[in-house]
Amino acid sequence: SEKEIEFWKKQFGAVFFASFGDNENFVFRPLKRNDWRILITKIAKLPEPKKVEAIVAAGVVWPKLNDAAINVLTAGVPESLKNLILEASNFMEPERAITLVRKL
User: Fold this and answer.
1) Does an H or E element contain 37, and which?
2) Across residues 14-43, what is the average pLDDT?
3) Residues 5, 57, 59, 34, CA torsion sign
4) For residue 90, is pLDDT > 90?
5) Long-range contacts of 49-56 (CB under 8 A, 24+ apart)
6) How far apart are CA 9 and CA 76, in angstroms?
7) What are 49-66's pLDDT values in tens digits?
8) What is d(CA 53, CA 90) in angstroms, rounded to the nearest whole number?
């Protein structure tokens, strides 16, 4: 609802919507630096698929995702959501980052 969206915006600053079909719709947020520090400490020794799932669970605001909910998603959705969350959090390739630089 609009009320929920406004609440999330106040809480997180920015929220985004991604749809991967009729039944796979998500609202996600960028991760802040402190969120990232806590997250990378937690996931350091996990296998890559679990790292992806942890990033997705941290960034998705709605619906709340746990292991059971993630396991029934279409195979590529967690990886795609992870990429969207990281891009919204300003993680990018160096080639893209350099395009943001302007000489003053």
Assistant:
1) helix 33-43
2) 95
3) positive
4) yes
5) 49/78, 52/78, 52/79, 52/82, 53/78, 55/31, 55/82, 55/85, 55/86, 56/81, 56/82, 56/85
6) 27
7) 999 999 999 999 999 998
8) 19
